[in-house]
Amino acid sequence: MKRIHDTLLTFMCVTTLVTLGSAIYISIFWKDATVLDVNILWQILTTGLLTSLGHLIYPQKELSVKRHLFLLTIYYLYVNIVVLVSGFYYDWFHIDQWKMVAGMVILIAVIYAMITAFNVLRFIPVVNKMNQILKERNKEE
Amino acid sequence: MKVIIEDLKPGEEEYILIKCKEMDASLLHLINRFRQENLKLTAMKGGSVYRLEPKEIYYFESMENKTFVYTQSQVYETKLKLYEIEKDFCEGDFLRISKSIILNINKIKSLKPAFSSRLEAFLKNGEKVIISRQYVAKLKEVLGL
């Protein structure tokens, strides 16, 4: 249940940031386009879902730091492959336009870093609350 | 809650009687703490045998088929396996925090987020232990979150 919850949370985060990223990308590389096809929204959702499912490669059991870093790298490569293949399939960029491809790769890196940061930051208030409880317990001892 | 303390009759054994409408988690925790007060652990150090009280113990660690007991400044060894310690101690103030460590949560001074959704627990004696991701939820539950 927790795995489904974590994957859904990742999906929501990914969709929000990808929508923002798409807005930036389209504004830079497709600024001359006057009409956007409504299919772009389904494309964003589908790609977001596929990238979020990659989160399931993390097992429930204890991981060493080395193993975690390895899985993090695999997940990052997976995200890049999914987004670049989707981008090629949906014509988000032209493969012969290196600036468009580079822009996409940079965008993936930025969004990935933001999601990783979000996962760390959302944990901080919980830890602060736990420290508060521990402080009160230590006073009682 | 009323607390009544009575004198013992001659020959009578000490006991605690709890009257309650229903057994909830906090009451169960209190009972386990009382049980743990009478629990002593036999441990060895330098060829000598010691009897340690749970409140002296910071954490247990299993390494290379041996189980070590850490107090404020000493390290002992016990013949008990970690799963046996978990059975006796983990209903009270002790909690399994990784595959190889059982920690006395009363000895935690503070917590800090660590890589990979783990927690670093800074202990009152200055030591630091890592709480694995899958045991963080249990710690939150024990702290009432």
Structural description of this entry:
The complex is a heterodimer of chains A (141) and B (145). Chain A has 141 residues and is mostly helical. Helices cover 77% and strands 0% of the residues of chain A. Chain A contains five helices and no strands. In chain A, helix 1 (2-29) packs across helix 2 (39-53) and helix 1 (2-29) runs antiparallel to helix 4. Chain A is elongated and about 65 Å long. The model of chain A has no long low-confidence stretch (mean pLDDT 85). Chain B has 145 residues and is of the alpha+beta class. Helices cover 21% and strands 33% of the residues of chain B. Chain B is built from three helices and ten strands. In chain B, the strands form three sheets. Chain B has a five-stranded antiparallel sheet, with helices on both faces. In chain B, strands 8-9-10 form a three-stranded antiparallel sheet. A two-stranded antiparallel sheet of chain B has the order 1-2. Chain A binds chain B through residues 2, 60-63, 65, 68, 119-120, 123-124, 126-127, 129-131, 133-134, 137-138, 141, and chain B through 98-99, 106, 108-113, 115-117, 119, 132-134, 137, 139-140, 143-145.
